[in-house]
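anyone seen this seq b4? input:
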Amino acid sequence: MSPAESTLLALVVDDDEVFRTRLCRALTERNWEAEAAANGDEALRMPGKSGLEVVQELRAADPSMTIIMLTGYGSIPTAIAATKLGAGYYLSKPADADQILTVYENLRVTPSNGTEAPDTVPSLARVEWEHLHRVISDCGGNISQAARLLGIHRRSLQRKLGKYPPAR
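predicted toks r here
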């Protein structure tokens, strides 16, 4: 390992404590220094920041920083907004440390200037799965209410949830 590689630092910002802790541990095991923050406020020590605002603030603070944004509720418009604000890449969860580090290595070889859309587009099945989970989350986990909002039968929604998560 070269001296430059031994000083790699990752800032992991996620509201899911288990995911945040596991990702920091996995990065540390791969010779990274990983710092954790539960939200944008904690990451930037500034109140009221969303993930996109955190990307924008980080980019403004250090234009050479490599930013990889992860989200549990990905969408193509959000991915485009994130990259326009300065994220080098945008991944949907679940993503593991190896996937994140592969993206990082690819960005080191071909840096993104934050104005390009991601190379890969999620499959329609993946976008549907993410949308279903976002609606369920917005309904506080109430499957019946989510099914009504989606205009499908509750059992149909449960069957769809049983088939996923699909591959990218």
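The longest strand covers residues 9-13. The beta strands are 9-13, 33-37, 68-71, 89-92. kinda curious what u guys think
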